[in-house]
Amino acid sequence: MEEIKKVIVEYASKGKKTKFYFKDMQKGVNKTIPDAKA
Fold first, then answer.
1. What residues contact residue 33 under an 8 Å CB cut-off, 6+ apart?
2. Angle between helix 16-32 and helix 2-12 axes, rounded to 10 deg
3. Alpha-carbon span 35 to 16, nearest angstrom
4. Which residue has the higher pLDDT, 35 or 24?
5. For residue 25, how many other CB atoms are within 10 A of its CB?
6. Is the pLDDT of residue 2 over 60?
7. What gap in Å lies between CA 35 and CA 19, rounded to an integer?
8. DSSP code of residue 35
9. pLDDT tens track for 3-33
10. pLDDT score at 35
11. What are the two backbone dihedrals, phi and then psi, of residue 27, each rounded to the nearest 5 degrees?
């Protein structure tokens, strides 16, 4: 789980546009993997 978080955070921090989608990605991850807590 931590590895997935790191990849998402690193990807999201690359550009301002990706930050816009960051919350949506978290929602998708939480739906797919309920055990993953933001």
1. 1
2. 160
3. 28
4. 24
5. 13
6. yes
7. 23
8. T
9. 888 877 777 667 656 566 667 777 777 777 6
10. 67
11. -60, -45
Tell me the pTM.
Answer: 0.32
Token pair in block for residue 5:
């978080």
Tokens of 24: 């949506």
Q: Where are the domains of the chain?
A: 2-32
The count of other CB atoms within 10 Å of the CB of residue 9 is 10
Neighbours of 11 (CB within 10 A): 13
Q: Residue for token digits 């978080």? A: 5
CA separation for the pair 15, 1 (Å, rounded): 23
